[in-house]
User: What shape does this take?
Amino acid sequence: MKNSELIARDLSVLWHPCTQMKDHEFLPLIPIRRAEGVWLEDFEGRRYIDAISSWWVNLFGHANPRINAAIREQLGELEHTILAGFSHEPVVALSERLVALTPKGLSRCFYADNGSSAVEIALKMSFHYWRNSGKSKKTKFISLENSYHGETLGALAVGNIPLYKETYGPLLMETITATSPDCFFREQGESWAEYSRRSFKSMKTLLDQHADDVCAVIIEPLVQCAGKMRMYDPVYLTLLREACDRHHVHLIADEIAVGFGRTGTLFACEHAGITPDFMCLSKGLTGGYLPLSVTLTTDAVYEAFYDDFERSTAFLHSHSYTGNPLGCRAALATLDIFEQEPVLENNLQLAKAMRDATARFEDHPHVAEVRQHGMILAIEMVENKPARLAYPWQERRGLRVYQYALEKGVLLRPLGDVIYLMPPYVITPEEIRTIAAIAYEGIDIATRQ
Ligand SMILES: *Cc1c(COP(=O)(O)O)cnc(C)c1O
Assistant: This one.
């Protein structure tokens, strides 16, 4: 089969995610036939480096032999079963390991099959905890400017990116928005820590005013990924944990994108040594293989639901594929790799290779900033560098970088005018240099005239 055949068939029956379908009148779809390691291959043998881990999910490469083998083995035993009233070994083993690996105090695992659902679960559980505890006045959530927590209505409501949210405004619950610690806005000479600390004032004021009505604060620790990879300092997490404790407000850490080593530590909360009341995980959880997510919480939360049935305090939430055994086995194989290989140590070298390969970008006349937290590195293109003024969004400069990189065999998928590298951990320094060189040329071309 040729690329063109599959494209024609696709465009006659599919509606693609996060896409203006009319774009495909000029923007070719890329049909992928197979993939291995960091390489994707189309039907005519053209290869692309997956520099964005297939939307941030892949950790140890495509067709990873160990994860493949684990799923095959599981397939021979049990593909799926109901998890209400029933159990199976993969979900028990995975829960034991997640409780052991996540920050101390997180002791219960509740499963779903995508990140947005994990966020919905955290929001509902927090609200329901306060209700079960006789605090039914607590109904609100505080989240950060420029945050992203998923696309379902509750998750969208606590998000704050107008591009995704604005249209659906009338459908969404009201939330309280605090200033983001986003260090792109720091003053010249100001450190990340200073700026993040300064921006905490807004959160402090909101908590002082609203704590009695607020269930939880929800944040993406250290990197607002969908919010154009904007970053902040761990001190913000420390301050937030203290303030939430003081005000009897839960802290929900959405580590769906930053979990599993992306920021250098296994979980981003570790940079501040904090334990959230809820931690949401998905994306890398299965190594990028299967849809699975989990919301972890504490004994204190769990116990507020534990009572005689007639007292109606149970968390009656479920999804059909909750705790799917194949997904759990893929996750266990992924955790085996973390346990048996020096992944985080190797990532230090890869993160350095990313930094070195993009060092010269800072001098480009249309690059405002190169920022990095571990295995996430972002390059912000602007029209006016001294004023840090963005290009009009209608010009779609980032899309030009996307198109150029594809021509050269690299999958980059800029967020607006922000080009980022978030590769699988099996990438080589050589491949990182290839991506960086092509990204640089792409930026050069996209910013001409
Ligand atoms: C991707 C993402 C989600 C949503 O996960 P889905 O599986 O796409 O529903 C939520 N929060 C963050 C931080 C994410 O990056």
